[in-house]
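note to self: dont lose this again. the chain is below, predicted strucutre after it. 143 aa total, dont forget to put it in the shared folder this time
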Amino acid sequence: MRYGPLLIVEDSDEDFYAVRRALGSTLPCALVRCSTGNEALDYLLQQGKHAQAERPTLILLDLNLPGKDGRTVLAQLKQDSVLKSIPVVVTSTSSNPVDIDYCYATGCSGYVVKPLEYDRLVAALQSIRTYWLSTVVLPHLHD
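---
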């Protein structure tokens, strides 16, 4: 079975490379990166240069992005009848309960506070891989 890509919406090169390292090279799906909220929405809505974009299997969404931030992307995504079923895991350095509550109320599937230490960040991202890709998303796609 072919899976849609894992969409990573992350403006930080360092965090994106940590995501790639943590997820490893044995993913059953491609990694696609969008660096801004506007680009992520274009990708998801298949607009502009992303007119042929493939629907993602899972979205890792940074909360603080240039342009439209992660809150706006999440809200627009969860209001779309076709896209709202895609699981979204928000990754952010913010541990503010207001941000966390907003994301869950808006429909995110998970919220992970990104640790500042690189090794802890990689470990947190590996736990996302284990849970979301190995346990929840990919087995469900076989149904």
